[in-house]
Model the fold of this input.
Amino acid sequence: SDSSLSESTSTTTSDGTLSDTHSCRCHLSYLTQSRLATAIHAVLLTKSVGSISSLWSKDAIVDADTLASGGCRDVETLGSAQTYVVHQDPKIVLVPNFLTDAEIHEVHAVCNGLWEQSGVANDSYAASGINRLGRTSSSAVLSWAQTPAICELEKRLACLAGMSVDHLEGLVGVRYEPGQFFTLHHDGSHRPVTIFLYLNDLPEEEGGETRFPLLGLKFAPRRGTAVMWSNVGSDGKLDSRLIHHAIPPKTKMKFGVNCFFHELPLRRANDSDDLAEGDVMDEFLIVLQRTEGERLGITTHDAGDAIIIDKVKDGLIARWNAANSSSVVEPGNRIVAANGIRGDAGILREACQGSGTLELTLGRRRRVEAA
Done:
């Protein structure tokens, strides 16, 4: 796997003191809990001074155990799940005990061996582009339907979200060690729905909550709980009120799963590697400057004379996307040539190795409607 972004660890200098990087992270961990720092960050992200009101608002702690025992006014049923509406506008719902013990065990088992330094999105509502300062957690990116149990979980998530499973991105496990965090961010307007799953409990005094500062809400980590919200308003535009951040746990580990529903049916586009009748392949070129050991940041699979892109993660291609809006590389695109070389997938992979200039010719499938 592509693991050039390894798990970050604290280091010591020759005289036994903590390194500057570790010291910086400690200060940042403290700042992520500061109301002043969060309010300032919110103003910068939303470009609205109204965000400063979060300085004085007292957060309501949302605890699934309390809601399940009768502490919530609005109860709905989505699919087969009983949900508690904890905020009406924007709407946020909570589902206690959404995950079974078997599903929690399965997610842990699948994530083992996949953990790597978490990445951040490349948009104006993302956390700091300096990944190791803006987000210090670890992530494990799962493939679609990676196991039969994961496949069934994906179907239940789609039912809860009220969207086709075709729109569900690959599940992403997240792990926060003591002091690790994710600064204020938004999941993006291209993801109309987010569901976050908590895999373990943390005591109230332990921290680790998911905080929505503009809504005055903090969600306590409760094993098996699902929290769902929409990232867009009724007009389909980004709802900046949903910016949130992960408060660092103090002494214990926090585990969870990000479940993002994309505006496009990504999975359907990837179901078939072959062109269907009426499909054409538009080719476009991207030119990358790659240093030794630098990651492209994509997960792929082979398809005859092409390499199909399954996911775009943090890396060189994600940075290309941020700077080149007219030729964005997306899941479902296929690499058909590397530095002018065409051939089977094995030859293409070999041509993609090494440093220096890398010219990739990509194909994008387009449906031509009959006249």
